[in-house]
Prior knowledge:
Elements: H1 7-21, E1 34-39, H2 50-68, E2 72-74, E3 78-79, H3 84-93, H4 97-114, E4 125-126, H5 130-145, E5 149-159, E6 164-166, E7 171-172, E8 175-176, E9 184-193, H6 199-204, H7 214-224, E10 226-236, E11 242-247, E12 258-261, H8 267-272, H9 278-289, H10 293-298, E13 303-311, E14 318-324, E15 335-338, H11 344-352, E16 361-362, H12 368-371, E17 382-383, H13 394-407, E18 411-417, E19 422-423, E20 425-426, E21 436-439, E22 443-446, H14 474-477, E23 478-480, E24 487-490, E25 494-495, H15 497-500, H16 504-507, H17 520-526, E26 529-535, H18 541-555, E27 565-571, E28 574-576, E29 579-580, H19 591-598, H20 600-609, E30 617-618, H21 621-645, H22 659-682, H23 685-705, H24 713-727, H25 732-741, E31 765-772, E32 775-783, H26 788-797, H27 799-805, E33 810-816, E34 820-825
Parallel strand pairs: 1-2, 1-26, 3-4, 12-14, 26-27, 28-30, 31-34
Antiparallel strand pairs: 5-6, 5-9, 7-8, 9-19, 10-11, 10-13, 10-18, 12-15, 13-14, 16-17, 20-25, 21-22, 21-24, 23-24, 28-29, 31-32, 33-34
The structure holds one RNA strand.
Amino acid sequence: MQERYNPKNIEQKWQKKWEEENVYYTPDYSERPKYYCLEMFPYPSGKLHMGHVRNYSIGDVVARFKTMQGYRVLHPMGWDAFGLPAENAAIKHGVHPAGWTWDNISNMKKQLKQLGLSYDWEREVATCHPDYYRWTQWIFLKLYEQGKCYKKTASVNWCPSCGTVLANEQVIDGACERCDSKVEQRQLEQWFFRITDYAERLLDDLKLLEGWPEKVKVMQENWIGRSEGAEIKFKVSGLDEEIEVFTTRPDTIYGVTYMVLAPEHPLVQTIISGTEYEEEVAAFVKKVRNMTELARTTAEKEGVFTGAHCINPVNGELIPILVGNYVLLEYGTGAVMGVPAHDQRDFEFATKYNLPIRPVIQPEGIDLEKEGLEKAYTGEGVLINSGEFNGLPNKKAMGEIVKKLEKNNLGRRKVNYRLRDWLISRQRYWGTPIPIVYCKKCGTVPVPEDQLPVILPTDVEFDPSGKSPLVDNDSFINTTCPKCGGEAKRETDTMDTFIDSSWYFLRYTSPKEINGPWDKQKAERWMPVDQYIGGVEHAILHLLYSRFFTKFFHDLGLVNVREPFKNLLTQGMVLKDGAKMSKSKGNVVSPEEIIQKYGADTARLFILFAAPPERDLEWSDRGVEGCNRFLNRLWRLYYTLYDEIKDAPSLENPGKLVGVHEELRRITHQTIKKVTEDIESRFNFNTAISAIMELVNAVYTYRDKVPQAERNKSVLREALEITVLLLSPFAPHITEELWQALGYSESVHRQSWPQYDEKAIIEKEVTIVVQVNGKVRDRILVPADISTDELKKHALEQPKIQKAISGKQVVKTIAVPGKLVNIVVK
RNA sequence: GCGGACGUGGCGGAACUGGCAGACGCGCUGGACUUAGGAUCCAGUGGGUUUCCCGUGUGGGUUCGACUCCCACCGUCCGCACCA
């Protein structure tokens, strides 16, 4: 055994050996129960950052731990390889996105290997590979086939100077990220997935996700935003038209004093055309439509009168129709009935434009009509000014009013969702081509399955403006119609990269499958993902889209699970000086440097030790040194005891141990229990590691306090073996080296997780705290199996206790076996 | 505004079901070894007026007993944000 711990040599040696011996190969079939451990795959930016190190270290501990517990573990890794940075690099540095991406992948893969992560690299996937995106296209076609994919005009971010559409992430504070000019909104035809068809199930099935953080479920719930109410029709006065509104407060319908339409509402043009109001309204509409979503949502509420009126269906009243900047076409029906007395937004709007405010809900004890309103009253009460419904409690009135409307075919009960359909087309190059062609004769035609993949051409020129090179690529665009064989043009939009990442967890189950996106049987064997680990920034989009896809696949019979991820762990950020690491702040610590200086084991250990996984982690160079010191200390312990333990026999008659030897063995087995529970039930790796540190400290104490001749070599060896086994998921290289030094030829990572000896962990004597009126006055050492009465008696006899209670009356005595005695005195 | 999380030594964090507050690590202090120490080892380390008292953001409550449960407030962070 080497005298000094040399991480660089050890780590390289074992990484090479693991690779040669294919230690982390995952068989599809075996007798063992399955466990699918997955970490969110990275975008291949070129370099690993500390967030990756944290994410993948956590996953590696879980995977290694489960493997040792006897599971057949699937632990794969791949690349979310399409996306904008590759394209930006192409424009800026003249390199091709494909080359740039593949170089980055190879570099990051090297870095991941340096961390000693237990991936089965034979299952590696990259979403930009035709063998992968072929199936992304196939999934698109399935959605198209099932009517879950459609094209409609939508508002997009348009940079007038670049002459191109921008993705949302390219718009920084309302300006183009490349040329800084102001972004406009334009109406273009866009592809959508009908995720809203799944809104209800996506919401309801959150209940099934017991292993998800409450926080993420709440975020998804809010995002889906279910609200119950009614859809009500208002006839337009003097025209054969109707305006439909959605409201959650049908009980306030007698309080409607105006109607507001979204600027994009189709009826706006109809009701103003040819009137004196046309010019003013059209100008207002144009102004609002040109605003970005951000500008629009932060602007003050504004509206203009259209000159038209509609009729309140319950009382026939004439109501003015306005157009307002705060009404969204996408939500509900794009029209809102204004009830200023009972809605704060309406109240503000009505006050600004001097519209009437009429209370229709009366709270108990206050007369809203007499006292007037300073703000909207949104609480409960009974109806007033509401015709036949006067006097009804408003909750009851909701149902009654809707019933009446339904009877007269003027409205109906309706559930609305905030969730909108998923806009998936991107006017970008580096993404999965949408497998659609446009034929003059046949119209929009999907590319037949057997003609997939639609290959993303690589012979392209990049325009410095950022315009997608596909638009001008004639050999790509010009094709023949699959239906009629005539001339046709390809769709030049590519898919949102969130689509690529919404099914990759299925591809891992059979990454080389050529007859479908995955082998159904294999997917059934592995799914669901038992543990998914990643950043909380994906709490909504990625996780919601993956759930949507899984439900869609379930409906098609392609998978048997309803939910893809059984348990979810959202790891916290890695901070330095209290802030997220970023180039602009100059507080970045590179994993490469740390590995270079201390080795991967130290880096992993620190990142797992410094905080529990879900919390943010403050980077500390001193802390890293501390972890490195611990590994050195462990190494030295082995080195100094090596000759004693290398041939030590295994322990016989553990029950006969006494004194310090028994104590060391007790600590050893208590540590097994503690570490197992910390990893298994709580993912508290920080406390698991501190328990191992305590065990190492205990062995040091044993070594230093017990003369060599008196040491029990078997107990000592057991303690050291257990230390290595317990530490092996955290620090895989040093433990492998020490395990080999102990004389084993098989990898420590193929060993079973140690079991603790129930008998060994029992303490024969325990320290009991003795309190008087809840304050600690003494501690006593008593046999663990002492009776409650004996314990109370013994506690009372203590001189310190006698002193503390002298002259006072003992009211009662509480004894908690194994913990404390509390004497209550007066 | 709504929703969620969190406030514990000089620092990162422990304390799992209400039962010894501060495990483990960092830092700091003193000592040993040493030509040397930013290596290693040993001892100490919440505060104070030190037989005892105080102490987990603040104030109250429940309890024999509260970091833990309840109420109110203060502060920090995150998510959503005109959703009718």
